[in-house]
Sequence to fold (493 residues):
Amino acid sequence: MARPHPLAPSAASLSASLRDLGYSLETAIADLIDNSISAEASEIQIFCDTSRRTPVVAILDDGQGMDGEKLIAALRHGSTNPKKKRDPKDLGRFGLGLKTASFSQCKRLTVVSSIDGIRVGAEWDLTAVEDLDDWFISILENDEIESLPYVDSLAETGTLVLWRNLDRLSEDESGRKRDEIVNEKLSVVERHLALVFHRFLAGEVKGRKKITLRINGHSVEPFDPFCRRNDATQVLALEPVWVNDVQITMQPYILPHHSRLNASEYDYYQDRSDFVSNQGAYVYRNGRLMAWGDWFRLVPKGEATKLARVQIDFPNSLDEAWTIDIKKSRARPPYEVRERLRHIITKITARSVTVHRGRGQRLFQEAQAPLWERYAEHSGIRFAINLEHPLITSLQKKLAPSEVASLLVLLSSIASSLPVEMIYSDYSTHPRDFAQVADSDLTVALERLKGLKHALYGEGPADPKAFLQIIKSTHLFDGQLDIVSTFIQETVK
Fold:
């Protein structure tokens, strides 16, 4: 009969491997904030101080705190069985987050916790673990605790997490270059936390306190990926789906066209989110955003769905069904959710396209005789200059037959050489900057209006209403309709 043989892993080797699970600074800090929220914290502060002789990152909260026994358990690898039923509010799963997230950024992890002013502290030092090739933590004495950075900022009840020996934060740079790297990373951290915890920051999670989150004293404001404050955002019907007798809710949204955002809204969303790449499902577990910007291979990302978002909420009892990973940055929906999402995508695609293309459709509806025409044919979609436009037909009448033929060749060449790919690229990347801006000079505008009137009517009479429609179709005077109105009133008889 085979006999069991103890075979503990090498502490030095395994601890080094645990440092490379794929955490970034922002996902590592988010993992620690999960612990603070699970501990019912309402205020969480993050400090990053590289000016010290020993740089440090500190995460403080005013949560429930831990006694000595709970602190040691929290520092144990695999402190929680992922299959064990947990509190419905718990944001953890594997009992690894505090350690693996911290080790991804530092080699010395210190945790101090306080309950009613009674403090306990313990520490992992990976350098010592590697030297002795053994698993052990250090229990800190009171004088060691009191000498720690930021311990004076710890509330009567709460927890302080310290990262030291930050061997990956500054990427071996120093001086100004180091500061630039750290500041850039902290900017990414702020944006990440503003999105991942936006519902906690806004006080929208049922049964949870509204949290305040600060980085080096600067408040993190929630970033709503659904732009719900804008009246033009469409909120579609809520779609429930059941998995293992547990309800999952799916809330579709259609974001506004960029033209419906005011300047501050547009700058805010453009600075933090790209409409095309961040379209898709936004998966929340107990109110915490886990994964986003993905249609789970049901449809490819593209212009047709660029304004579509689906908020999906599920409880932690379905973690295994969603195959949540250690970093809590990946989630794969169960079959039932995928099928319902497929159904939702079919409905929202048409609405997203309508919103996105609305301005383009109006281009052809506003003018009785548009200058450009759109054709949907078997070979695809093409755009062509409308040869029946009054400006073109009027010009043809003034030209000799050979000159008319040359004009038509020129117009066909212009239509055929329309730089569709370049227009698409520029519009998709910077839609607010994309515009055929008219010359704002009054003298230039008046000269153009006189030239347009003469090209159409010569010295003869003109129909004011028809002339106005033709002017609009050229888009030469967009934003100058007050000048156009005055010109027509004064000169068109």
Observations:
- The CA atoms of residues 124 and 137 lie 5 Å apart.
